[in-house]
Design goal:
By secondary structure, the protein is mostly beta strands. It has 2 helices and 9 strands; from the N terminus they run E-E-E-E-E-E-E-E-H-H-E. The strands form 2 sheets. Strands 1, 2, 3, 5 and 6 form a 5-stranded antiparallel β-sheet that branches. Strands 4-9-8-7 form a 4-stranded antiparallel β-sheet, with no helix packed on it.
């Protein structure tokens, strides 16, 4: 029962720091009993930092208990061309680094489109300021186009089957 969770992070792996606030998070629809899910869902994240990454984690939904980790991948925003859509398959890696591990974890197809307006970046101020100061920065930016990443989580292939245990099993 896989679903994808997407957000913007600074860094990768265990050292990654999720950028909260305006960036946000997106959780896809759960695809029940499917190891090759097709989502075709689009999310938009406001982000001006070319060193930031899109972090995508595929989890297996469990009605009872914690969801199971299936795989993770990263896409660095600075590797994307401004206003050029890029459709690419990413290999799902392990939980620690999001890279290929010993286990095959499948792949996910993403369509990424980044609109990076360098005029909107004011020496990183919009990332570190308090709410009141962010409003002041936004006012100085006027009607300039936003820095935004649009992501379409298209589909995944060959995600691992998770072990099922019954809540009624005796052990």
């Amino acid at each position: 029962d896989p679903y994808a969770r997407l957000h913007i992070a600074r860094g990768v792996g265990e050292g990654a720091r999720i950028l909260d606030g305006r960036a946000g998070e997106h959780k896809s629809e759960i695809k029940y009993k499917e190891l090759n899910p097709v989502w075709r869902e689009t999310a938009a994240f406001e982000c001006a930092d070319p060193d930031a990454c899109l972090e995508l984690t595929v989890n297996d939904y469990d009605l009872i208990g914690d969801d199971d980790f299936m795989g993770r991948c990263y896409a660095r925003l600075g590797d994307l061309d401004d206003r050029v859509p890029r459709r690419v398959w990413h290999t799902l890696g392990d939980e620690a680094e999001g890279r290929d591990g010993e286990e095959e974890r499948g792949r996910v197809e993403l369509l990424l489109w980044w609109h990076h307006n360098r005029e909107n970046v004011l020496a990183g101020e919009d990332i570190e300021l308090s709410d009141g100061e962010e409003l002041a920065v936004d006012a100085r930016l006027g009607n300039r186009p936003p820095n935004e990443l649009r992501v379409r989580a298209v589909r995944a292939r060959d995600v691992p089957a998770m072990e099922r245990t019954s809540i009624f099993a005796r052990g």
